[in-house]
């Protein structure tokens, strides 16, 4: 009997059969995000999305965003828990689209790994799909690639890209912001997906293992640090609609939104304020989540020293007309999103002192944090 032919690709470390099995395991969760706009099912070379509905727009603009989860994946790998990283990815990508007032349409994902473990890949994609469904986004395609020799067998990284749509005259941003506008902070669920290089540095230097019990949180350190990113897309879109008009000649009550990711509160707020404006964010209006305090205490540092790295309890900022403040807070509370006033936008001469002036290449407004953080939970 002749010997079975060898598979050179398999000998090089790539298991195509495992990749096929991973696709089979994830199919049902991906299909659950598909409405009638998605054509062709799962597994095609390209995802197809029927854009006929865009003909009802006066001037539809497509909004797009791409991102990853960063070194938070190292913690997922350390405790072999992979079902929440997908939500982190969707939060980082899709929640950037809503900043301009856009409704997400579809998303694709990319997973690079040293070796395909089908159930693990399926867990990651299931998390992506569930979060896509929670944000009204169709997951229309993706790719899983084995990179043996470049990544360790149990290493992986994730990335994604999403596309949304907004009416041209309904775009939110700095040009809508007015003197006297109120800045609302919307609570985060914790660290979200930024600053994990600092987190891992603190934990490692303290000799803490991710499987160790975190007495302050009633679970292990790994489970605590994997708390998934809060998803803001649909509550914020409903807020825009409620406080409209969100299209046409009216400016609406929601003028600008900011997703608090890398760079922290001041830098991200400055990006969506116009040149010549300024805002002071009052720390005393909230108490950062316990995870921030515990990590800072372990490091022997202050919360203020991490303001350019962590969100410190605010995942989104909304710049709205002062008259709409109470209605906005109530509407977000009804969505399970605690929100409160953290500051006011001013134009012209600003107080003495150092402000952050724009960020990420945007020469926007000026922002600084003032006061001391509240002691009690917000």
UniProtKB/TrEMBL annotation:
One of its GO terms (biological process) is 'de novo' IMP biosynthetic process. InterPro entries: PurM-like_C_dom, PurM-like_C_sf, PurM-like_N, PurM-like_N_sf, PurM_cligase. Its main location: cytoplasm. It holds the Pfam family AIRS. Residues 178-346 form the PurM-like C-terminal domain. One of its GO terms (cellular component) is cytosol. Residues 61-166 form the PurM-like N-terminal domain. It is found in: Cytoplasm. It comes from the Bacteria. Belongs to the AIR synthase family. This is Phosphoribosylformylglycinamidine cyclo-ligase.
């Amino acid at each position: 009997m002749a010997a079975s032919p060898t598979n050179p690709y398999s000998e090089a470390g790539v298991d195509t059969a495992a990749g096929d099995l991973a696709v089979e395991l994830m199919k049902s969760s991906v299909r659950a995000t598909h409405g009638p706009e998605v054509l062709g099912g799962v597994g095609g070379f390209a995802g197809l999305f029927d854009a006929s509905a865009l003909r009802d727009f006066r001037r539809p603009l497509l909004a797009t965003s791409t991102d990853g989860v960063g070194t938070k994946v190292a913690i997922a790998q350390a405790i072999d828990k992979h079902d929440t990283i997908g939500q982190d990815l969707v939060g980082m990508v899709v929640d950037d689209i809503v900043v301009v007032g856009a409704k997400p349409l579809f998303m694709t994902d990319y997973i690079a790994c040293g070796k395909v473990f089908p159930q693990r890949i399926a867990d990651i994609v299931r998390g992506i799909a569930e979060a896509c469904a929670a944000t009204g986004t169709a997951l229309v395609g993706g790719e899983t690639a084995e990179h043996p020799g470049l990544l360790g067998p149990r290493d992986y990284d994730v990335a994604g890209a999403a596309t949304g749509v907004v009416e041209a005259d309904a775009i939110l941003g700095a040009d809508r912001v007015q003197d006297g506008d109120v800045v609302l902070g919307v609570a985060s669920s914790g660290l979200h997906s930024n600053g994990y290089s600092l987190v891992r540095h603190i934990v490692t230097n303290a000799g803490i293992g991710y499987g160790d019990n975190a007495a302050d949180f009633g679970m292990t350190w790994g489970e605590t640090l994997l708390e998934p990113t809060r998803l803001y897309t649909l509550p914020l879109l409903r807020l825009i609609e409620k406080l409209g008009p969100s299209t046409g000649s009216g400016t609406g009550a929601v003028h600008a939104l900011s997703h608090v990711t890398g760079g922290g509160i001041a830098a991200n707020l400055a990006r969506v304020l116009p040149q010549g404006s300024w805002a002071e964010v009052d720390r005393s209006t909230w108490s950062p989540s316990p995870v921030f305090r515990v990590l800072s205490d372990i490091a022997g540092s202050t919360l203020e020293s991490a303001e350019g790295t962590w969100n410190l309890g605010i995942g989104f900022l909304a710049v709205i007309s002062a008259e709409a403040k109470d209605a906005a807070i109530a509407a977000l509370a009804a969505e399970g999103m605690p929100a409160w006033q953290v500051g006011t936008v001013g134009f012209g001469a600003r107080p003495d002192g150092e402000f952050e002036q724009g960020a990420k290449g945007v020469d926007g407004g000026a922002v600084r944090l003032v006061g001391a953080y509240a002691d009690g939970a917000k």
